Model the fold of this input.
Amino acid sequence: MSQLIGLYSYWIVIVLMMAGLYIMIARYNLVKKIIGLSLFQTSIFYLYITMSKIEGGTAPILVEDADYVYSNPLPHVLILTAIVVGVATSAVALALIVRIYESYGTIEEDELKAIEAAEPDA
Amino acid sequence: MDTLIVLVLLTFLAITAIGIIVLRDLLGAVILLGLYSLTAAGAFVVMDAVDVAFTEAAVGAGISTILFLGALSFTKHEQKPRGHDSWVALIFVVVTGGLLIYGTLDMPHYGSPDSPSQTHPELAVRYVQESGSEVGPPNIVTSVLASYRGYDTLGETVVVFAAGVAVLSLLGLRRRRPEDEAPEDAPGDIPAADPQDNPRRNV
Done:
């Protein structure tokens, strides 16, 4: 039972990760693929924050004259950076999708492939 | 009690993720993604990561949702029904997930005080004990972000700048000019043309 509770957060992280991966593989819609990518990214954030938590700890903000246990601040810093970079990646991907839609009139991957195949010297 | 809250929030996250998979309406999926980020932010607060929580709530649930909605307003709201290749993907995902779950069996348990991430002398103990006197701010995350790992943050701003330039060069400059005044062959100034009409113009 303690094994179940101790590892449950990792398992949920893996479920979320695989949900994102499944969307990216099985869905042809490009916007949906980016949604899957975001899902995957957030699950990684979760994995890191889970590992920084310490039992009975508190947020890593120093308090004078008190003997608190603090959670590890390093994963927090890494994930702060990762969140912002992740949004920047999504923004570029979405801008590309908008351009693809303007040029080809579709954002479905298989239709794009069909258009590519129909081009004479592609 | 904390652990219970985290477990419930994690279960919410999993349910939301499954909802995103099955939902065909892209607008609904984007809103669910915002809900997912907000739930994650709530769980981050319970797990003591307050800085991450407000960044996730502001950037992940806020700005990211706005970006998706903006992209959807230029494209279609509906994904076309597809199902024929889902089997291979499902098997692949289940096998990968199973292997990863097998890998977690050796991981330190949630919140365990003797896990390597809590006991490493340079990466956990030193930040907590020394950052107050070495850097100054009471918030250790600030000290690490701006001082110990300042180059990481510099690199992050470079990435964000590059992404901003990329988005602007893909979308921004072109939209300022009215369609009819634009010259036919100007690079980066291609109106939504029928691909049958002139296929090479799209590249």
Notes: Chain A touches chain B through 90 residues (CB under 8 Å). The helical segments of chain A are 2-26, 30-52, 73-104, 109-118.
